[in-house]
Design goal:
The chain is α+β, with helices and mostly antiparallel strands. The protein folds into two domains: 97 residues, 2-Layer Sandwich (Glycoprotein, Type 4 Pilin), CATH 3.30.700.20; 66 residues, Dna Ligase, domain 1. It has five helices and eight strands, in the order H-E-E-H-H-E-E-E-E-H-H-E-E. Helix 1 crosses helix 2. It is globular. The N and C termini lie far apart (35 Å).
Length: 184
């Protein structure tokens, strides 16, 4: 991972994501964050949690747009466009915990032994089918390398052993940070 964010930048990005969702829910103008690492061209994912449950997760893995723009857009999309969940309500917004994963560059994997569980996220692709899992997913579930590869294939809509031949595998690192959990 080539980028290291300061505590202030992390706080600013979390505030940007929260404000972007609020603006979307209330019809207000979308906030912007400029300067510093907000202008860096990096991919990111925004995950929303209610309690311990995932409530939305959308990302843009390619480093082709300014990070501030990517985070604001992904936050709104995670709240309103994740097909696994209904759109977030204003009441849920207040209780939601935001987690951001800022992605480093994508690197092709030539040998699966190069994949370090907990450090690398993966993208598996074959034709138009693509699956991505963030680095923290394998750690959360206690997966080993082969299980991570199998689940990334399944997420792409492929056989769980498709990683053994005929697919493209890329890895990436991510800087992951989140709001503090709300005490209940």
């Amino acid at each position: 991972m080539t980028l290291t964010l300061t505590a202030g930048e992390r706080s600013d990005f979390l505030a940007l994501a929260r404000e972007a969702i609020h603006a979307h829910l209330t019809g207000g103008p979308r906030p912007r964050l400029q300067g510093g690492n907000a202008s860096a061209r990096l991919g990111a994912f925004v995950s929303l949690h209610l309690g311990t449950e995932l409530r939305g997760c959308i990302g843009h893995p390619h480093g082709d747009r300014p990070l501030g723009e990517v985070i604001a857009q992904c936050a709104v999309s995670a709240a309103s466009e994740d097909p696994r969940f209904p759109p977030l309500t204003l009441a849920e917004w207040a209780a939601a915990r935001i987690e951001i994963s800022v992605l480093g560059p994508l690197e092709p994997v030539k040998d699966v032994a190069e994949i370090v569980v907990g450090r690398h996220g993966l993208i598996v692709s074959q034709g138009y089918l693509k699956g991505l899992l963030l680095p923290q997913v394998a750690t959360e579930y206690g997966w080993d390398r082969e299980t991570l590869l199998a689940h990334t294939c399944l997420k792409a809509g492929l056989r769980r052993d498709a990683w053994k031949s005929g697919v493209e595998i890329s890895r990436f690192e991510a800087e992951v940070f989140a709001e503090q959990a709300v005490e209940s």
